[in-house]
Design a protein that fits this description.
91 residues, alpha+beta, three-stranded antiparallel sheet, 3 helices, binds zinc ion
Amino acid sequence: MTLGQALAAEVRLIAWCKAGEQRAEPVVADLVARYGSDTAVIDWARRLRCSACDGREVDFVVSGATRRGSRTPRLVAVGGRLVRCRSSPTT
Ligand SMILES: [Zn+2]
């Protein structure tokens, strides 16, 4: 699956640091804008780093289609760093 396909399918990408409890849910449209629609999701996931502990032990899942009407809080990807955990201050 590519980022473009993920956007078209309206799936959610959820990433988290294996050392932390919290997770991030980047906006797929932002990822497409940054990395291009032809980038494979697995290649995007390989670039992830934790913003709190700088670790590369970041895992991710592709979740089902977004439910319209029920908005979950989303963390926007900033500077290629997507996962916030532990004491990382939220902005
Ligand atoms: Zn971490």
